[in-house]
Amino acid sequence: TAPSGTNSQRWTFTIVPDRPSVERVGEVVSDFFRRLNGLAGRGSVRLLSRIFDRKDRLGVYYREYYDSVKEALDGWDRERRDRLFHGAPAAILVGAAPGASCPSEDALLASQNILLAAHAMGLGTCLIGFVVEAMRSDRKIAQALGIPRGERTYAVIAIGHPAERYRRAAGRKKVTPRYFEVS
Predict the structure, then answer these.
(1) H helical segments located in 1-66
(2) pLDDT of 78-88, one tens digit each?
(3) What is the pTM of this model?
(4) N or C: at which end does the chain have fewer Cβ atoms within 10 angstroms?
(5) Who's near 122: CB < 8 A, 6+ residues apart?
(6) Are the CB atoms for 3 and 109 separated by under 8 Å?
């Protein structure tokens, strides 16, 4: 029931209904990050990448994510500790099919509705950005999950019964709005 730009309603939903399927998604995504960490861990590759990529994306990845991704992959390999989906028994991939006028906005509006509905049902959720980024970078992941060519995933939601119950929402930074008005 989320709104969509020009009422195109081109959202797509891929349901990952059980823990073995969630783990399979995790394995496919982990393979991507193993390859990426392999490249990022080589100084000569980072140097070449920096020469040809003004934004130095591989270098930024190395500095900001390499260590934590390596630790997460090691934890999965050694102990099956799931730092990607946090043990969730199911997931929902929210995307948009071609033809949407505002595909990312539409998918994210639908995702917010899913998050709110899950909370109202007593379920816990977590947006999993590492999966979205891996899918953006490697089309083979979408193919492995049966997502048609031309469709893009904008949000991945882990969903399940939370292990913890909180009395209140997590604190948020104070928002300072800006005002614009014609005098």
Answers:
(1) 19-40, 43-52, 57-61
(2) 999 999 999 99
(3) 0.89
(4) C
(5) 161
(6) yes
What is the structure's pLDDT at 99?
93
Query: Token pair of 53, please?
Result: 């990529």
Q: Is 29:37 a contact under the CB 8 Å cutoff?
A: no
CA 23 from centre of chain:
15
Q: Which residues pair with 126 in a beta bridge?
A: 158
- The SS3 of residue 74 is helix
| Residues 153, 95 contacting (CB under 8 angstroms) | yes
Hey, what are 78's tokens? 């050694």
| CA 89/CA 44 separation, integer angstroms | 40
